[in-house]
């Protein structure tokens, strides 16, 4: 019985190894990066510890409203790190849009970077 279990474990681990080597996601990919302004509209869902921010962006020729948390892995901004009164409506930060050029990684990656937007 123990011999059977050992063979099973070896076959199982081999199968996992083969399937992981066969994955098409990831690898060395190259992206084209576009940075557009993300303008603070207002704060949302504030509480004593954290808050979210609504931004207006103009990407792909149209305006859109985005939540910080929606573009940053559902992470909210902690008041301890960035006080609420520093998020002033009209202030512009960076909205990063990366489009895959080569490889098999995620085709489009977009997120808001809380770094001031500087006009190119």
Protein architecture, described:
- With 120 residues, the chain is of the alpha+beta class.
- The chain has one domain (26-116): OB fold (Dihydrolipoamide Acetyltransferase, E2P) (Beta Barrel), CATH 2.40.50.
- The protein is built from 2 helices and 6 strands.
- Strands 1, 2, 3, 4, 5 and 6 form a 6-stranded antiparallel beta sheet that branches.
- The longest helix has 20 residues, at 2-21.
- The chain is globular and about 45 Å long.
- The N and C termini lie far apart (70 Å).
- The model is unreliable at 12-25 (pLDDT under 50).
Order of helices and strands: HEEEHEEE
Shape: globular
Level-2 CATH architecture: Beta Barrel
Radius of gyration from CA coordinates: 22 Å
Number of helices: 2
CATH fold assignment: OB fold (Dihydrolipoamide Acetyltransferase, E2P)
Can you summarize this structure?
This protein has two helices and six strands; from the N terminus they run H-E-E-E-H-E-E-E. With 120 residues, the chain is α+β, with helices and mostly antiparallel strands.
Q: Which terms summarize this structure?
A:
120 residues, alpha+beta, OB fold (Dihydrolipoamide Acetyltransferase, E2P), 6-stranded antiparallel sheet, 2 helices, 6 strands, 20% helix, globular
Helices, strands, pairings?
Elements: H1 2-21, E1 30-44, E2 50-59, E3 62-67, H2 68-71, E4 77-78, E5 92-102, E6 108-116
Antiparallel strand pairs: 1-2, 1-5, 2-3, 2-4, 5-6
């Amino acid at each position: 019985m123990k011999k059977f279990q050992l063979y099973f474990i070896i076959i199982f681990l081999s199968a996992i190894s083969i399937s992981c080597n066969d994955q098409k996601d990831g690898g060395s990919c190259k992206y084209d990066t576009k940075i557009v302004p993300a303008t603070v509209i207002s704060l949302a869902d504030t509480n004593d510890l954290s808050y979210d921010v609504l931004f207006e962006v103009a990407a792909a020729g149209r305006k859109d409203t985005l939540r910080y948390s929606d573009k940053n892995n559902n992470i909210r901004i902690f008041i301890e790190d960035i006080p609420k009164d520093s998020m002033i409506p009209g202030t512009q930060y960076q909205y990063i849009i990366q489009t895959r050029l080569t490889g098999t990684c995620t085709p489009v990656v977009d997120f808001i970077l809380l770094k001031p937007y500087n006009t190119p």
